[in-house]
Structures are given as C-alpha cells and as structure tokens.
Amino acid sequence: MSTIPEVLVANHCGMRVFGMSLITNMVVLEYDSDVKANHQEVLETGEKRGKDVQQLIAALVEKLSL
After folding, report:
1. Rg (Cα) of the chain, in Å, rounded?
2. Can you give the pTM of this predicted structure?
3. Shortest CA distance to 27 belongs to which of 7, 46, 42, 47?
4. How far apart are alpha carbons 9 and 2 in whole angstroms?
5. What's in the keyword line of the UniProt record (predicted)?
6. Which residues contact 41 (CB under 8 A, 6 or more apart)?
7. Do residues 37 and 25 make contact, with C-beta atoms less than 8 angstroms apart?
8. Where are the alpha helices (DSSP H) in the chain?
9. C-alpha torsion sign, points 48, 51, 53, 56
10. CA quadruple 27, 41, 61, 15: dihedral, nearest 10
11. How far apart are CA 12 and CA 9, in angstroms?
12. Quick one: pLDDT at residue 14?
C-alpha cells in the first residue's frame, strides 16, 4: 500500500499515526482469470462510501479534541 512509506517516516520522526484503508474492489489472483479489475468499480465504491468515511473521521477528530 502506498501509505506504508509515509507511516514509516512519520513514526521515525516520533509522530503518532492513524492509518485507514477503504477496500474498493476484489483482488484478481490469477492472470488468465475472466474477472478483470476495473477502475470504475473503485470510483463507484469510493463514491458510495465517501460519506461514511467522512463521518468516521469527524467522530475520531471529535474524540481526540476532548
């Protein structure tokens, strides 16, 4: 995942880190599979779950500010 290098550097700098991922599509394990990954599926899932992620982050920030 692309967040790993950033988290390693932040941790090395003494920063506390919270990481979260939104799984947006199924993995295709075999090269010759009839199932193909597509970017549209990723975009649609992000659109569907965007508000949920916003609410989760807002709740976490609220808890941290107490």
Report:
1. 16
2. 0.61
3. 42
4. 13
5. Glycosyltransferase, Transferase
6. 24, 25
7. yes
8. 3-12, 39-64
9. negative
10. 40
11. 5
12. 97
Whether pLDDT at 47 is above 80 = yes
Pair 21, 6: CB distance under 8 Å: no
The torsion region of residue 48 among left (phi > 0), alpha (psi -120 to 50) and beta comes to alpha
Q: Which amino acid is at 5?
A: P
Give the HSE-up count for residue 62: Cα atoms under 13 Å, Cβ half-sphere. 6
Quote the Cα angle for 40-44-45, to 5°: 120
User: Which tokens hold the place of 20?
Assistant: 């979260």
pLDDT exceeds cutoff 70 at 1: no
Eight-state DSSP code of residue 32: T
Place of tokens 């692309």: 2
Q: Contact 41/24 with Cβ under 8 angstroms?
A: yes
